[in-house]
Automatic annotation (TrEMBL):
Residues 3-116 form the Response regulatory domain. GO terms for biological process: regulation of DNA-templated transcription. GO terms for cellular component: cytosol; protein-DNA complex. This is Stage 0 sporulation protein A homolog. InterPro entries: CheY-like_superfamily, OmpR/PhoB-type_DNA-bd, Sig_transdc_resp-reg_receiver, WalR-like, WH-like_DNA-bd_sf. Residues 133-232 form the OmpR/PhoB-type domain. Residues 133-232 bind DNA. It comes from Acetobacterium paludosum. It holds the Pfam family Trans_reg_C. PROSITE patterns: OMPR_PHOB, RESPONSE_REGULATORY. Keywords: DNA-binding, Phosphoprotein, Transcription, Transcription regulation, Two-component regulatory system. It comes from the Bacteria.
Length: 236
């Protein structure tokens, strides 16, 4: 049974999500406080966390940051306000998805399923790669798929799960141009028009870690009007 933790002080919303997830066969833990949520994360095996930004004992964005510092469990942030800055910051801190209240409960459940499927796919890929010890070498970038580690100019770079997946996908397909929507669907595992800005956030974060000058990228470059391309032509 897949398990989900809901951290939300709105009991009505919390119960609604819990009811629908349980109907789909999920095990669900609930709490209204971030402190208790962090305890549950340390004690239970979880497949996904639904985290509200506004909590009585802390900011959900800070909680997201704490979780991501020690765990790669998928995190879906929810917020009562559609502030783009919160979304960009949350995704930058390592959240995997963001949804604004009021939301369609069916859409939320679909996103939860998609995130868990995606995470299972990654784990299956890791197991398969252990048999082959695959590595990708692309210019100054070296990616070890088995250990999920990446190096740039012989220095190890720290990447979130989604940053690693995105960089690996583009490095495997260097010199091909991909739209933000295509990258979003390929990496996040489901189609969600309007959320391709998630790709922009993650590309910016990756550039900060691999580019000599992130403001003038040479590895992951913009193809104006189309999307992004990974290229190592002329890169030292």
């Amino acid at each position: 049974m897949k398990t989900v933790l809901i951290i939300d002080d709105d009991l009505e919303v919390q119960q609604l999500i819990k009811t629908y997830l349980e109907r789909e066969g999920f095990g669900v833990y609930c709490t209204t406080r971030s402190s208790e949520g962090l305890e549950i994360i340390n004690e239970k095996k979880l497949d996904l966390i639904i985290l509200d930004i506004f909590l009585p004992d802390g900011n959900g964005l800070e909680v997201c940051k704490k979780i991501r510092s020690t765990s790669k469990i998928p995190i879906t942030l929810i917020s009562a306000k559609g502030d783009e800055s919160d979304k960009v910051l949350g995704l930058g801190l390592g959240a995997d998805d963001f949804i604004t209240k009021p939301f369609s409960i069916n859409e939320l459940v679909a996103r939860v399923k998609a995130q868990i499927r995606r995470n299972e796919f990654i784990e299956d890929l890791k197991k398969e790669n252990r048999k082959h010890n695959d590595s990708i070498v692309a210019g100054p970038i070296v990616i070890n798929i088995e250990s999920r580690t990446a190096f740039c100019r012989e220095k190890k770079i720290l990447l979130t799960a989604k940053e690693f997946d995105l960089l690996t996908f583009m490095a495997k397909n260097k010199d091909r141009v991909f739209s933000k929507d295509f990258l979003y669907e390929s990496i996040w595992g489901y189609e969600s028009s309007g959320d391709s800005r998630t790709v922009t956030v993650h590309i910016r974060k990756i550039r900060e870690k691999i580019e000599k000058n992130p403001k003038k990228p040479q590895i992951i470059v913009n193809v104006w009007g189309v999307g992004y391309k990974f290229t190592v032509s002329g890169i030292l």
